[in-house]
Amino acid sequence: xxxxxxxxxxxxxxxxxxxxxxxxxxxxxxxxxxxxxxxxxxxxxxxxxxxxxxxxxxxxxxxxxxxxxxxxxxxxxxxxxxxxxxxxxxxxxxxxxxxxxxxxxxxxxxxxxxxxxxxxxxxxxxxxxxxxxxxxxxxxxxxxxxxxxxxxx
Length: 153
Fold this sequence. Notes:
LexA DNA binding domain-containing protein; 7% strand; 153 residues; 2 domains; mainly alpha; 6 helices; 55% helix; two-stranded antiparallel sheet; Arc Repressor Mutant, subunit A
């Protein structure tokens, strides 16, 4: 049936996300939110985007999950299990080594990457591309952190 009043649906979704953030629980899935509003599983992403545009929440989108911050309180839902960047947010043409090159250098690491990619439901090359993007972002953060430690130290 679903709620016809979009404001009611927004209020219900916001409340569910805020309650999860209050206790540091994982962000409710689209299915969880659809059940709450008695609507389609395609509705929650649109509702969350509207809440974000209203300045009520900030959304970090990842490959399979999202993390939401409640702007007013700064509270966040739990960190995501897989920090692979969502394909929409990934830079185009991120280079990644071929799995054969990884296996030539370290066969065990290559094997573990293949297993992890399968576990995530991704093809190996996409998984490697995500890992390069995540690793480089972490590298840049650590370089920035080290540079800041040198300031005034």
